[in-house]
Structures are given as structure tokens and as C-alpha cells.
Amino acid sequence: MNLPNRLTILRTLMIPVFLFFLLTDYAGNCSKWIAVIVFILASLTDFLDGHIARKYNLVTNFGKFMDPLADKLLVSSAMIALVGMHRLSSIVAIIIIAREFIISGFRLIASDNGIVIAASYWGKFKTNFQMFMIIMLIIDLGTSTAVMIENVLIVIATALTIISLVDYLVKNKQVLSEGN
């Protein structure tokens, strides 16, 4: 198994560790900081595995399948936990998670038709803002400035989620045409 795939597996294994510290006070006041560090490290493996796989031609079918799945599991589990902690609106979580299901289904249809849909810049911006949003919501500084930044990140992440969805659908509408 190559390094990018190991990083993807590591990210997947980090999710329960992240959730454990996010949702418990096992380490007292340090729990949220441990959760943030684990989340950041998991997020960095997302960047690293893709970069290494492309740079050294280590792209595999396992990686093509597991990398986006690991990303969706990380972000979705974080958002669901934040909804339960009353730090994120369920509507925002539903919009973001629904977009991931729609794009996954869309990619599946495209793949059945021999079409590969690459990640777009909108999708990459969306992911970055979602990660920053999640980090800020976990840290929960509670100051008026921090709350304002959190709210701006939530709005931007949600808007980019919708924009990236529309971008994918418009650029790849041939996937849904009846001729395929």
C-alpha cells in the first residue's frame, strides 16, 4: 500500500479520535484543543495524500474511492457533532452534506459513462472554508469578534457549497443527458 493510501486510512482512523475528544471532557479543558489538533492533522492529510499521489504518479482506484469518502466522513461527522453541540445550524449541515451526496451520485453516474469529473476550484475553496469554519466553531472563543468571524465563515462556506454544486452540474450536464 502506497503512502497516499496510508494517509487516507490514517485520516479515516483519526475521525473517531477527533469525535471522542470533541464530544467528551476526557482531557478536561484540553479536550477541544486535542480535537482541533486532530482535525487539523486529518485535514492536512487530505492535502498531502492528493499532492503526493499526483506528484509521484501514485494514484490508485482505492485512493480515488477512499480519499473523497474519508473527506466526506471527516467534514460530515464534524458538522453533525457541531449541530448536536448547538454550534452549527442543522440547515447549514444539511445543505453541505446534501451537496456531498449529490456530487457523489453525480460522479458515480459520470464514472459509469466513462467520464471523470475533476475537482473544481470552487470545490477546493468550499473545502477550505468548511475546514476553517469547523476549526473556529470547535475553538469557540466566545468573543464578539470570534462569533462574527464564525458567522461569516458559515455564510461563505454555505454559499461556496451551493456555488460549487451549481458549477459541477452546469459544467457536467452532459452526464445527465438521456443519450448516456
Principal-axis shape: globular
Biggest β-sheet strands, sense, barrel:
none
Number of strands: 0
- Uncertain residue ranges: none
Number of helices: 6
Order of helices and strands: HHHHHH
**Beta-strand fraction estimate:** under 5%
Alpha-beta classification: mainly alpha
Distance between the termini: 35 Å
Q: Overall pLDDT, averaged?
A: 92
Q: Which range best describes the helical content: under 10%, 10-25%, 25-40%, 40-55%, 55-70% or over 70%?
A: over 70%
Radius of gyration, in angstroms, nearest whole number: 17 Å
Q: What are the salient characteristics of this protein?
A:
globular, EC 2.7.8.5, CDP_ALCOHOL_P_TRANSF_CS, transmembrane
Structural description of this entry:
It is a multi-pass membrane protein. This protein catalyzes the committed step to the synthesis of the acidic phospholipids. Belongs to the CDP-alcohol phosphatidyltransferase class-I family. The chain is mainly alpha-helical. The protein has six helices and no strands. The chain has helices at residues 3-23, 31-55, 61-84, 90-112, 121-139, 144-171. Helix 2 packs antiparallel against helix 5 and helix 4 (90-112) runs parallel beside helix 6 (144-171). The protein is globular, with a radius of gyration of 17 Å. The N and C termini lie far apart (35 Å). The model has no long low-confidence stretch (mean pLDDT 92).
Question: Mind sketching the topology for me?
Answer:
Layout: H1 3-23, H2 31-55, H3 61-84, H4 90-112, H5 121-139, H6 144-171
Keywords: Lipid biosynthesis, Lipid metabolism, Membrane, Phospholipid biosynthesis, Phospholipid metabolism, Transferase, Transmembrane, Transmembrane helix
Family: Belongs to the CDP-alcohol phosphatidyltransferase class-I family.
EC number: 2.7.8.5
